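Page 47, continued from p. 46.
Same chain as before, 435 aa.
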Amino acid sequence: METLPTARKKILIVTYYWPPAGGPGVQRWLKFVKYLPDFGFEPHVYIPENPTYPILDEHWVDEVSNKAVIVKNKIREPYRLASFLSRTTTQKISSGIIPKVKKQSFLQKLMLWIRGNIFIPDARVLWVKPSVHFLKDYLVQHQIDTLITTGPPHSLHLIGLQLKEQMNLKWIADFRDPWTTIGYHKELRLTENSTQKHKDLERKVLQTADLIVVTSPTTQKEFAQITSQPITVITNGYDVEKGIPFILDEKFTIAHIGSFLSDRNPRILWKALKELVKEEPGFAADFQLKLIGKVSQDVLDTIAEFKLDKFVYNLGYLPHNKAIEHQRSSQVLLLIEIDSEQTRCIIPGKLFEYMVSERPILAIGPPESDFESILKETNTGHFFSYEEKDELKNLLLSHYKKYKTKDLKVHAVGLQQFSRKSLTEKLVNQILVNL
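Result:
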């Protein structure tokens, strides 16, 4: 049953990613803001006026609720200055595509060192001071006493930290990803001093916020070692996409949608596919590997190493609605996470849209990953560790044979709990109405 406050309550959400930004970071609070008015809340959304987004997607502009109040303030971004040195390198680093250390140029090493050690916790830290100054007045003028910050970039939590220390308000810190244990931290060439600064800031934010929201149970356990403040898990989810046509691909298409980073390079998959191309009659004629989104050159090189490049259909980044079309038309959906204990907590946002695409998911990641249990509970796919090449190959062969008989299907269960409206209701009932 929906719980509605007796009067419309205003809340302020501080986020960096907002339409026309593309990629997964924009969707979480765009969708919360879409549904919060249904539960009696008036969302005010504070965003940068002149951001440097690595990916743009105009599709999301139409999704912004007309019941939300959008507030903008200028930001100074070092990525804009860095692009004068190398636009390509800057875009890759800002979007998370970091080449292997041995393949990094001197310029790339320098930019990563500056990013990790000068701009702490991240390159948007210059927005903190002007935002605190601006929002102190805005919160008073509009009689708002509930503040939500969402990161990454985690510098936005420093805005919440300073406002909490200076004003009488309730502050919720939402972590879409972990902070100091995120996989790419080790790529930033951090000094010991910089590493400690990150940990100190993380601890202060976690101990000062009135409530912390995370997207996975593992992150909840990790943060519980640092703070005694309440921590609630609210995963990402899916929204109902209407009017998107699709017809199943004629070929046996295996599609990866989203950023394909260097560390997400599953050699067991490429080896299994190479063997099937050689061993299984008809497979080579039917198989196609669809890549949609930014793809690391390391991944493309490895695919070529296994002589699979002739099967690749690389579409690059597509607007969200076009990506959804490919999700629904592909025969199998590929979900890859970095093989590291630190990434067990990562539940990729695309998992939930994959689950409602009615196509089988083939997932590879570290053992005991949080998203493994979701796949099993919803009956939407199969999970493999990086050591299970033969098991992976057997599943691919099984999927291929079902594809040949037009019987490759999934029978999902329990998906409604992950709808964006259901998750917003959880945010309201478990957090907002209790502040």
